Structures are given as structure tokens and as C-alpha cells.
């Protein structure tokens, strides 16, 4: 063994491997050893361990082979002789040493183990005896204490019950008020007394619930209160929505009632003012001796009628129940959510305001459409005014002013748009009266309405325009029915009838015996009467506009001036342009115009009597009358005469009965036209600009120049050009006249074919005729 040990000692690597085997976990012996399969198996067998990666059932083809391949150690299989054998011997020696140590340890502890077992055997008998004694003693104690235990448990149970009863009574006394208040809350909810229910909830939360907050039923009640509050909010909000829908439906009725009250109050005030004026006049007339009893009776009657009207007219409170608003406001105030309610109410009312302000598309067709529009708006703002005064903070004056300004802008825009479609002056007048009543009604509730009266001035201009259009038709009818002859009268009665209609004064005519004639025709008194009717119609619109008499006087004079200078003058101008109006009619029209102009001072007196504004006032507008019209009549007559003369001369040349015309006749005709042009250039009537009157003969002049100069090449070359010298010469006219001259040359000059100049001229005429015919045919085809 010494030799073996010495031999083994010569291999230090074997020692190192054995140390690693001793110090390494058995699961990692394989990687540590890196031995061939036989060595590994020996190690495992000798050290009583098995590899974790291999089992005997796997056989040689399993993991040991793989492990053998992996555990090959180069130091064991090197070139040293007997290396494997030496290592195995060293390994056996090491195993024997470990076996000896294990045997020594077992021998050392074996005697102590035997002694301990012996002692336990001795104690077992005593322990069994002690167990029997303890069990017996315990049984005796149990039997002796059973009755005591029963009695003690009974006492304990009775005392617990007594304490519980006392506690229950105390707790019930504490809980009963809570339950009573909660029952009261339920009754209030069922009776829809929501405001009282909210007050009860506050008492429960602040006073009663803190006393019993530890109980589950209290927690359930506490958890249920928010739901009840939400239910109350939803119910009150539903009532508010019903209220809003109700006032939306009743807005027109409310507005109609308010406007009727305003109208009755205004009527009564006017009646009272008239009564005061009558009393003042009677006092002045009778020098203080007036039958006062009669005045008192009339005034009493007026008051009685006012009282009857007040009884018949309902108030806004009679038409609408405002309790849902008050109730909802109080509920939201108690809930601390007043701002939400205010915002919702204002938002919904603004939406309703937009709906109310939206007019119907055909509103302008009838006065009922405007009335319905106004009553709805008045009803809306009457409700808002009522809410403003009976609630605190729900709506404010700033809010209503903002809402009114928004509405007023929309109202003005709507009225301005829809009134522009009104062509009937009666409808415009009714619209004006509605706007005035609408403005007076809302002004009585404190809303500013100055912009509405400014709008009325715009509508007044439109009203005047509709009046002017209406009276234009009246004037046309009068002119159509006139015979344009002096008015004949055969007796005094007829004379007075005419004088009553028209302020005519002529001493010479008065001295003449019957029968006699007025210088003007029948249309003059009719025109004068209609002008007065126009003034009355214009005055109707100026009433109730809160304007001074001076402003009304100025408006009447301006509108009358427009009637005279624009409408009447336009009708006269259209009249004198009609083809059936001859010189005789034109003379009579001038005479009629002169008398109408002279009557303007009587119209001024008529307006003065209406407005009580003296004509000597500095800013009084004067009536222009028809002073500018008589120059226009003369110009129109002169222009019409020249155009008629030019047309007649042209028709004379182109008359189908005129078969032939010579060049000499054309030259003489040219001299006649020159005389006409000289007359036109002599300015027979002042006021024509430049050569306006000479343009009446421009067609004849260009035609005659073409034939006198014989400039056919220029005419044909420049035809259709804007700068053509003969722009107004029609090819048909030139062709007709040229053919008449060609026929004359053939008939009168039988020897013309023997003269070269005449033959050339005849050929030229024929050539021009062909070209003109081609031009005319081309124009016909193009057309």
C-alpha cells in the first residue's frame, strides 16, 4: 500500500480530483470528475449516490453514455503508464478511510441511545397512572358543576335580556322621533309639499340623524335623501317646463290683454283731455256760468265705462299661474342650487324669445299677421316684467334690458323687411297704429321704445311712397276721363258746385251771364280734391307719433311737394307723350297746370288750418307747385311736334302711292328739311341742351346727305360700324327710295342710253340696288 500510495502520490492531479469529489455536491460529481463511464459508475456506487441526470432503466444508450463522453478527463487518460489503475486505487483507499470514520461515530453514540430508550420505558407506567387519575378528577368536577353552570347561565341570560331591553327602549326612544320625521317627509312628498319636505330633510340631517347615525336604517335614510332631493328637483323642473310651455301658449292672449288695457287707458286719457278742453271752452263762453251737473254726468259716465272695461279685461295673473316658478325657485334656493335654476330659466326664456321673434313668412299679407306677432312679443315681456317684480334675483333689470335690446333689434329688422312688401297704404297705416300701440304698451312696462318711433319715420316714407303710387293711379284715371275742354256751366248751381270743389276767382267770369265756361277742364277740380285727400291720408300716419305740430306740418308739406312735383308731374308728362294728345289738348293741359299752380297757396292754407302752424314760421316748407312742369310741357310739345314732322316727312318719301321721285324733288325736299333744322336750332323753347331738338331730324338728314352726295361706296363699306357716317340710314329705306329714282330715270330719259354719263349713272344705280338687295336679304336670313 505504501508503494501504491507513493506511486499515487506522484500524481498530484489525482489528489485534486479526490478533494473536489469530497467537497462537491453529489449532483455535480459528473461535471467535476469528467471521468469515463466506468469510473463514474464506481464513484456513484461507492459513495452511495446516483446521478440526477441518469437512471438505471435508461441503459447504456442513455445518459451515462452521454455523461461518459462529457466526463472524459484528459489527465486520467494521458500517456502516463497505469494512470487509470493508480487513480482507482487512490479512490478505493479514500473510500475505506471514510467508512472507518463513519463506523467510529456510530459506535460513539450507540450507548447513549440505548440508555434513553430504557428511561422512556420506565416512565411510561407512571404516566399512564397519572392520566387515569386526572381523567377521574375531571369527571367528578364536571358532574359537580353542571347544575351551577345551568343556574349561572340562566342568570347571565336574564341579565343580558334585561340590559338589552333597557338598551332597546333607550334606542327606540332615540329613534322614534327620527322615524316620525321621516314618515312626515314621506307624507309631504306624497302631498307634493316639496318645499316643506326639503325643510324636513334639513332637520333630519342637522338634528335627528346625528343621534342615530350608527344604525343601519339611518344610513339607508341618509343614502335615500339625495335621491329624494333629485326627485324634488326633477319634479319641480318638470313643473317649470310645464309653466314655460303654458306661457308660450298664452303669450298672445297675455299680449292682447295688455295691449287692450293700454288702448283703453289711452282712449280714456284722450276722452278726459277732450272733456277738459270742452269745459275750458264753455267756461270761456259762459263766463263761468256752466251747467256743471252735465259735465259731472259725462265725466262720471266715462269713469263708469272705464270701470266696466277693467272688469272685463283679465290681468296676467288671471291668465297664468306663476306658482310653479315661485315653488321651483324656493326649492332650488333651499338646495343651494339657485344659480342653476336661474341659468336654466333664462336660457329657456331666451330660446322662447327667439321663437317669438321669428315671424311667419306671410306676415306682411294681412294686419292679423302683424297683430299676432306683436301680441306674442308683448305677452313675453309682460311675463318677464312680472317675474322681475315678484321674484328676487331670478331675472334682473340688466337681464331684461339686454333681452329687450336683442328683441328690439330683431323686431326692427323684421318690420323693416316685411313692411317693404306692403303696397297697400291702408295696410301700412294699420301697421303704424299697431306699432304705436305696441310701443305704448311696452313703454308702460318700462321698456325704452324710441327706436320703434325712429322706425316709424322710415315706414312713414314708405307709406308716402305707397300713397304716391295710389294717387298716381287716381291721377291717371282722372286724366283718362277728362275731355280737355273748358268746363261749361249753364246756371248758378253748377257754378257753385265747381267753386266748392276748386278755389277759382275771376271777376270777369263772375260778371258774365250764363251759359259760360271755366278756363280749366274738369280734371282740375278733381285733382285739387284728390290732393286734399292725399294730405288727409298723410296726416293719418303722423298722428300718435309723439311729434310736435311743427314736425307734422313739415312732414305734410314735404309729402305734398312730392305729390305735386313728382307724381302729378310724371302723370302729366306721360299724358302729353300719348299719341292721341294734339296741340289743342296740350294747350288745355298748360292752362290746367297754370290753375293748379295758382291753387297751391290754398293748399298751404289748408295745411296751416290742420296743423295750426303759421306760414310765416322760419322753417316752414313752401309748396313748390308745378312751376317746373310748364317748361317741361313746352319742351315735350316742341319735341313731339318736331318728331311728328320728321316722321311725316319720312313717311311721305316712303309712301307706297308715291311710285317715282326725281333728283330735283329730292333736292327740294332737302331744302324743306333744312328749314325744319333751322327752326330746331333757333331754340324755340328754352331748356334744351345742345342740338337735342335737331336730333328729331337726324334720320332724314343722313338719308338726304347720302342721296345728295351720292356716297354709296362709303355707306356700303361702313355699314354696321359704330362710327359710320350714315349709321341711322336703314338699307330698306335707302333701297325703296333708290328704286323710285331708278324708275324715273328709265321713263323720263328715253335717250339716256345714247349719253355716256347717263348710262354710267344708270349702271351705278342698278349696281347699288343689287348690293342693297343683297344686304337686305342677308339681314333677313340672319334674323
From TrEMBL:
Keywords: Exocytosis, Transport. Residues 452-630 form the Exocyst complex subunit EXOC6/Sec15 C-terminal domain. Residues 90-259 form the Exocyst complex component EXOC6/Sec15 N-terminal domain. The keyword Transport applies. Pfam families: EXOC6_Sec15_N (PF20651), Sec15_C (PF04091). One of its GO terms (biological process) is vesicle tethering involved in exocytosis. InterPro entries: EXOC6/Sec15 (IPR007225), EXOC6/Sec15_C (IPR046361), EXOC6/Sec15_C_dom1 (IPR042045), EXOC6_Sec15_N (IPR048359). It comes from the Eukaryota. GO terms for cellular component: exocyst; membrane. Component of the exocyst complex involved in the docking of exocytic vesicles with fusion sites on the plasma membrane. Belongs to the SEC15 family. This is Exocyst complex component. It comes from Panthera pardus.
Amino acid at each position: 500500500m505504501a508503494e501504491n500510495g507513493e506511486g499515487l502520490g506522484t500524481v498530484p492531479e489525482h489528489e485534486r480530483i479526490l478533494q473536489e469529489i469530497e467537497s462537491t455536491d453529489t449532483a455535480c460529481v459528473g461535471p467535476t470528475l469528467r471521468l469515463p463511464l466506468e469510473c463514474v459508475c464506481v464513484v456513484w456506487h461507492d459513495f452511495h449516490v446516483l446521478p440526477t441526470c441518469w437512471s438505471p432503466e435508461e441503459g447504456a444508450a442513455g445518459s451515462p453514455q452521454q455523461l461518459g463522453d462529457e466526463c472524459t478527463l484528459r489527465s486520467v487518460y494521458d500517456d502516463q503508464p497505469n494512470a487509470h489503475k493508480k487513480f482507482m486505487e487512490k479512490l478505493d483507499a479514500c473510500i475505506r478511510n471514510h467508512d472507518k470514520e463513519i463506523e467510529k461515530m456510530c459506535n460513539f453514540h450507540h450507548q447513549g441511545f440505548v440508555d434513553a430508550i430504557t428511561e422512556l420505558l420506565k416512565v411510561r407506567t407512571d404516566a399512564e397512572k397519572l392520566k387515569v387519575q386526572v381523567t377521574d378528577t375531571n369527571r367528578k368536577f364536571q358532574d359537580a358543576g353542571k347544575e351551577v353552570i345551568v343556574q349561572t347561565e340562566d342568570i347571565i341570560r336574564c341579565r343580558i335580556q334585561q340590559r338589552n331591553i333597557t338598551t332597546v327602549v333607550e334606542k327606540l326612544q332615540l329613534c322614534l322621533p327620527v322615524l316620525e320625521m321621516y314618515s312626515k317627509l314621506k307624507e309631504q312628498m306624497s302631498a307634493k309639499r316639496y318645499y316643506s319636505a326639503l325643510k324636513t330633510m334639513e332637520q333630519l340631517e342637522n338634528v335627528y340623524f346625528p343621534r342615530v347615525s350608527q344604525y343601519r336604517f339611518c344610513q339607508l335614510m341618509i343614502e335615500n335623501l339625495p335621491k329624494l332631493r333629485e326627485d324634488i328637483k326633477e319634479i319641480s323642473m318638470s313643473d317649470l317646463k310645464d309653466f314655460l310651455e303654458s306661457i308660450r301658449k298664452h303669450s298672445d292672449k297675455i299680449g292682447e290683454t295688455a295691449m287692450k288695457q293700454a288702448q283703453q287707458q289711452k282712449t280714456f286719457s284722450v276722452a278726459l283731455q277732450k272733456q277738459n278742453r270742452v269745459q275750458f271752452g264753455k267756461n270761456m263762453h259762459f263766463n263761468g256760468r256752466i251747467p256743471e251737473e252735465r259735465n259731472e254726468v259725462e265725466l262720471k259716465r266715462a269713469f263708469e265705462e272705464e270701470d266696466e272695461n277693467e272688469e272685463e279685461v283679465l290681468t296676467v295673473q288671471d291668465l297664468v299661474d306663476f306658482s310653479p316658478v315661485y315653488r321651483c325657485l324656493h326649492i332650488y334656493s333651499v338646495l343651494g342650487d339657485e344659480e342653476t335654476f336661474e341659468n336654466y330659466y333664462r336660457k329657456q326664456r331666451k330660446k322662447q324669445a327667439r321663437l317669438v321673434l321669428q315671424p311667419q313668412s306671410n306676415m306682411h299679407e294681412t294686419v292679423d299677421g302683424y297683430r299676432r306677432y306683436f301680441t306674442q312679443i308683448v305677452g313675453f315681456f309682460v311675463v318677464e316684467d312680472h317675474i322681475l317684480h315678484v321674484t328676487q334675483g331670478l331675472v334682473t333689470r340688466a337681464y331684461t334690458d339686454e333681452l329687450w335690446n336683442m328683441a328690439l333689434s330683431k323686431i326692427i329688422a323684421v318690420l323693416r323687411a316685411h313692411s317693404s312688401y306692403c303696397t297697400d297704404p291702408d295696410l301700412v297705416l294699420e301697421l303704424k297704429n299697431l306699432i304705436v300701440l305696441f310701443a305704448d304698451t311696452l313703454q308702460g312696462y318700462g321698456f325704452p321704445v324710441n327706436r320703434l318711433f325712429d322706425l316709424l319715420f322710415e315706414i312713414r316714407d314708405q307709406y308716402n311712397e305707397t300713397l304716391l303710387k295710389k294717387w298716381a293711379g287716381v291721377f291717371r284715371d282722372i286724366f283718362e276721363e277728362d275731355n280737355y275742354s273748358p268746363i261749361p256751366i249753364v246756371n248758378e248751381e253748377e257754378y257753385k258746385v265747381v267753386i266748392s270743389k276748386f278755389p277759382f276767382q275771376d271777376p270777369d267770369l263772375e260778371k258774365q251771364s250764363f251759359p259760360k265756361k271755366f278756363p280749366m277742364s274738369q280734371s282740375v277740380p278733381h285733382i285739387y280734391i284728390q290732393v286734399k285727400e292725399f294730405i288727409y291720408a298723410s296726416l293719418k300716419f303722423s298722428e300718435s307719433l309723439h311729434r310736435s305740430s311743427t314736425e307734422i306740418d313739415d312732414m305734410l308739406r314735404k309729402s305734398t311737394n312730392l305729390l305735386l312735383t313728382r307724381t302729378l308731374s310724371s302723370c302729366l308728362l306721360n299724358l302729353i307723350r300719348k299719341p292721341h294728345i294734339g296741340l289743342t289738348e296740350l294747350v288745355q293741359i298748360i292752362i290746367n297746370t297754370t290753375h293748379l299752380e295758382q291753387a297751391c297757396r290754398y293748399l298751404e292754407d289748408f295745411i296751416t288750418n290742420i296743423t295750426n302752424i303759421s306760414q310765416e314760421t322760419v322753417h316752414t316748407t313752401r309748396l313748390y307747385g308745378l312751376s317746373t312742369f310748364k317748361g317741361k310741357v313746352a319742351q315735350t310739345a316742341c319735341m313731339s311736334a318736331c318728331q311728328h314732322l320728321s316722321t311725316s316727312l319720312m313717311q311721305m318719301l316712303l309712301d307706297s302711292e308715291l311710285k317715282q321721285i326725281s333728283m330735283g324733288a329730292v333736292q327740294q325736299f332737302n331744302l324743306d328739311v333744312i328749314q325744319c333744322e333751322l327752326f330746331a336750332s333757333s331754340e324755340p323753347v328754352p331748356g334744351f341742351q345742345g342740338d337735342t331738338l335737331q336730333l328729331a331730324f337726324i334720320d332724314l338728314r343722313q338719308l338726304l346727305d347720302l342721296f345728295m352726295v351720292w356716297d354709296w361706296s362709303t355707306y356700303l363699306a361702313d355699314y354696321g360700324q359704330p362710327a359710320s357716317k350714315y349709321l341711322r340710314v336703314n338699307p330698306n329705306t335707302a333701297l325703296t327710295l333708290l328704286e323710285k329714282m331708278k324708275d324715273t330715270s328709265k321713263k323720263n330719259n328715253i335717250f339716256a342710253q345714247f349719253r355716256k354719263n347717263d348710262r354710267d349713272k344708270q349702271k351705278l344705280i342698278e349696281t347699288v340696288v343689287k348690293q342693297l338687295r343683297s344686304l337686305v336679304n342677308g339681314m333677313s336670313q340672319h334674323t
